[in-house]
Fold this protein.
Amino acid sequence: MNKQEIIHSFDPNGPGIAGNLFGLPFSLDTSEIVIVPVPWEVTVSYHSGTVNAPKAMLDASSQVDCFVKDIPDAWKLGVTMLPVPENILEENQKLRTLAAQHIKSVEAGKVVDATDPLLTSINESCENLNIYVKSTTQRLLKEGKLVGLAGGDHSTPLGFLRALSERYERFGVLQIDAHADLRKAYEGFTYSHASIMYNALKIPAVNRLVQVGIRDFCEEEMSVIKRSMGRVVTFFDEDIKAWQYEGNTWDEICEQIIKPLPDLVYISFDIDGLDPKLSPSTGTPVPGGFEFQQIVYLIKKLVQANKKIIGFDLCEVAPGTTDWDANVGARMLWQLCNWMAVSNKKLSYVPE
């Protein structure tokens, strides 16, 4: 069947198709948006579990009702997730054990030695992952797909950003996160989850980084922000809360967040940017953060400001002992897909 026949034969009010993203009846060929799963958490420095996030969100997504009040044809777009790569899972498991041993030694006071063969091997494997992510996302972009990435830890989208930098001369990154992620080679890991934005800033095409919700950061990261000469614009969580306490609306604050962003925007979303009650199992939860609908409103305002979302990642969704984290993650993934599609004129926003 062609895509129109598939749409005609599918009942969006009934149960979804087991094993398909959001239970929708689409394949790679019939989807406008493709989610790339990257089950990787080699360098996580606190709790683990994000490696299982892509599969957990896929499973939870079948419980998401796909009707969107202001985007009535959302489900017809076509969204799918690539198969979770087993070889990446296996490599992660092997390296995670070695990385955990290294982290334990560092926490016991061992001085990081950049020439340590173990550390060198892990850094090389992380770079190999970056190469895999870049080639996979690059291929999909060349096929005309809109692309999102489902981590894994927050180190996983670097290859995607590199792929986009070869497609777009300049773009901005909107980072929703509890952490600044501007550390250099944290614990000796060049591609640490705590270094993703430090590494992103090495990409010349990333001409603006706007950070939102930051509430856990170190002196080194503050120095990077101050030295950036405006390339990094950080909205700290405590300042956002203070503005709200003083009477500023979330709508007004969103306008200030969006203002420094260029026309092309990549969204990098660490789930710990939300209030921890929404993602209690994430690797490094921090008090504070946002409600679910606050972030949906911010993304919606971004699109209404005529910014084009050229890609996104959703990372650090550790499933935990229940399906709550995966449920929240799947629902945020659905929102990201829809608003990226609207911003690219693939779907229509029809407010009531």
Q: What stands out?
A: The chain has a mean pLDDT of 94. The radius of gyration is 19 Å. DSSP finds eleven helices and eight strands in the chain.
